[in-house]
Write a structure and sequence with these properties.
The protein has 268 residues and is of the alpha/beta class. The chain has two domains: 143 residues, Rossmann fold (3-Layer(aba) Sandwich), CATH 3.40.50; 113 residues, 3-Layer(aba) Sandwich (Rossmann fold). Helix content is 45%, strand content 17%. The model has no long low-confidence stretch (mean pLDDT 96). The structure holds D-glutamic acid. D-glutamic acid binds next to helix 3.
């Protein structure tokens, strides 16, 4: 048993989808979230910058005595996970490996689509890991950078979002994918629209849920879950207080943001 909190971080508020999934599966774990709202987005930044930011945030989470660090951001998982895994004194979880495993279980035809930020798709990490584990897999990956602002605007069913998605999904439809990996913190909110556009037969891999399940299994196996002590709080730290963060954050978290504090993680 380990009563220390779990530390979760993301480029902004989108990673609250991972917090929500963790809180649902592991209500007895205290969760500490850091959203780097002062420096969001990560999706179009370089690997070096994202790795530096991720190190700074992890150092902050370690000051909170976390027992593990969970990289909720797909772009940071793509670029910084290996470095954090080598450097941090606690276990580090990302969203990619659990998503890859879930996609391989879900796909019948071995035709998988991936949508994510420019950084995530250009890193080629999902594509590489899928191919390593299933060499005959057919992968269609598409960067979909317009989706994050639309989701933050709460345009989840808006005709503009529908039209943009139609355009983005065109090559994935042509490739006749049967499984789509939602390789971005924000995309779980688009599930209803994606299902209506792609049909109910498509398997959607939600990287927030798959990551949360993986964390639960791994901690349970290692005997590191917290002892039952009732529902634990979610503490949210942000590096800036953007306009509408409260309302947007609560949509991602699907519950009230109880305590939000601003912190500097870059030593300035
Ligand atoms: N959190 C990012 C991700 O999952 C999306 C937002 C951003 O570009 O920072 O890749």
């Amino acid at each position: 048993m380990d009563q220390r909190p779990l530390g979760i971080f993301d480029s902004g508020i989108g990673g609250l989808t991972v917090v929500r999934a963790l809180h649902e599966l592991l209500p007895g774990e205290k969760l500490i979230y850091l959203g780097d709202t002062a420096r969001v987005p990560y999706g179009n930044k370089s690997a070096d910058t994202i790795t530096r930011y991720s190190r700074e945030i992890s150092a902050f989470l370690l000051t909170q005595n976390v027992k593990a660090v969970i990289v909720a951001c797909n772009t940071a998982s793509a670029y910084a996970l290996a470095a954090l895994g080598r450097e941090l004194p606690v276990p580090v979880f990302g969203v990619i490996e659990p998503g890859v495993s879930a996609a391989l279980v879900a796909t019948r035809a071995h035709r998988v689509g991936i949508i994510g930020t420019i950084g995530t798709i250009n890193s080629g990490v999902y594509q590489r890991r899928l191919r390593q584990r299933q060499p005959d897999i057919d992968i269609t990956a598409r960067a979909t950078p317009l989706l994050v602002p639309l989701i933050e605007e709460d345009w989840l069913e808006h005709p503009a979002t529908r039209a943009i998605l139609e355009e983005y999904l065109q090559p994935l439809r042509l490739a006749r994918i049967d499984t789509l990996v939602l390789a971005c913190t924000h995309y779980p909110l688009l599930k209803p629209l994606l299902l209506s556009l792609l049909g109910r037969d498509i398997a959607l891999v939600d990287s927030a849920e798959t990551c949360a399940r993986f964390v639960r299994e791994t901690l349970a196996q290692a005997g590191r879950l917290a002892a039952a002590d009732g529902e634990q709080p979610v503490d949210v730290y942000l590096t800036d207080l953007p306009v509408h963060f409260q309302e947007a954050g609560e949509r991602f978290l699907r519950q009230g943001l109880r305590k939000v504090e601003v912190v500097a993680v870059d030593g300035k």
